[in-house]
């Protein structure tokens, strides 16, 4: 099965950057030539979101890396989806492995945050992925399907959801999943969507890969039929390399042609 959605590349800047380095990154992105047929989104740290929205080209949309599970109020340190919409954001990342495994968010919390963000009109980049010991114990699809079910329990409209498959062992390690390894899990996720949600949702939902994607490996990954784009960490902090990864859409088109 193949995804029919448009290629999608997100740059997750995580907890990196300064006013100065972000100014330079935005300048690089503003002067870049992005190919047709790719949606490009960047996710700066909260404190730099306004700077990015005010200076970045409209060709690129902006995401937050997290949001609170409900309306704002007495929740010290949190940011509500309402506030993200208010400052002009279009997207939010939910369930990133660092939020699951470093901060300790559960499937249930992530599901609630996702449904609230969607209810406010944000698109959600919904992350799933197994740890190394889970892969080694042959539990990859079991873990990923459990994470998918927790999202599905809270999602009624999939049209603004992009799924990011990010194996934890590949994140920030330089150990990218092989195109075949990634394709296998992407196809399994698409099959799950087809069975549990609908064949239409399975065909239309973008399933993107994250974990040590760079300017060199993105082309081969993009050629795999169920890989509809990328969620990029480290390499998204380097403007020209991130542009190369976005333009891997041409490798995708070359296979489709
Ligand atoms: O976590 C990631 C994107 O969300 C991937 O990070 P790296 O590209 O640095 O491995």
UniProtKB/TrEMBL annotation:
Which SUPFAM superfamilies does this entry report, sorted A to Z? Triosephosphate isomerase (TIM) (SSF51351)
Q: Which UniProt keywords apply?
A: Isomerase
Q: In which pathway does it act?
A: Carbohydrate biosynthesis
InterPro entries referenced in this protein's UniProt entry, alphabetically? Aldolase_TIM (IPR013785), TIM_sf (IPR035990), TrioseP_Isoase_bac/euk (IPR022896), Triosephosphate_isomerase (IPR000652), Triosephosphate_isomerase_AS (IPR020861)
One example of the protein's molecular function in GO is: triose-phosphate isomerase activity
The UniProt record lists the keyword Isomerase: yes
Q: Tell me any Pfam family this protein matches.
A: TIM
Which domain of life does the protein's organism represent?
Answer: Eukaryota
An annotated GO cellular component:
cytosol
Swiss-Prot/TrEMBL GO biological process terms: gluconeogenesis; glyceraldehyde-3-phosphate biosynthetic process; glycerol catabolic process; glycolytic process
Subunit-structure text: Homodimer.
NCBIfam families the UniProt entry points to: tim
- PANTHER family for the chain: TRIOSEPHOSPHATE ISOMERASE
The similarity annotation says:
Belongs to the triosephosphate isomerase family.
This protein is called what? Triosephosphate isomerase
């Amino acid at each position: 099965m193949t995804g029919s959605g448009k290629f999608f590349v997100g740059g997750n800047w995580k907890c990196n950057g300064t006013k100065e380095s972000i100014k330079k990154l935005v300048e690089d992105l503003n002067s870049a030539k992005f190919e047709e047929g790719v949606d490009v989104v960047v996710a700066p740290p909260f404190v730099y979101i306004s700077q990015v929205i005010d200076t970045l080209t409209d060709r690129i949309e902006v995401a937050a890396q997290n949001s609170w599970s409900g309306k704002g109020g007495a929740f010290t340190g949190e940011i509500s989806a309402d506030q993200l919409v208010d400052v002009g954001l279009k997207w939010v990342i939910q369930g990133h492995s660092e939020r699951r495994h470093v901060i300790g968010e559960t499937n249930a919390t992530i599901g609630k945050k996702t449904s609230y963000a969607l209810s406010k009109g944000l698109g959600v980049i919904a992350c799933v992925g197994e740890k190394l010991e889970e892969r080694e114990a042959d539990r990859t699809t079991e873990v990923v399907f459990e994470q998918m079910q927790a999202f599905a329990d809270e999602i009624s409209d999939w049209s603004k959801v992009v799924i990011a498959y990010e194996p934890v062992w590949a994140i920030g390690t330089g150990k990218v999943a092989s195109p075949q390894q990634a394709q296998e899990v992407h196809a399994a996720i698409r099959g799950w969507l087809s069975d549990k949600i609908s064949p239409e949702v399975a065909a239309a939902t973008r399933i993107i890969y994250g974990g040590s994607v760079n300017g060199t490996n993105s082309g081969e990954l993009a050629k795999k039929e169920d890989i509809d784009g990328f969620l990029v960490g480290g390499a998204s902090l380097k403007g020209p390399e991130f542009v190369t990864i976005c333009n891997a859409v041409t490798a995708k088109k070359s296979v489709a042609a």
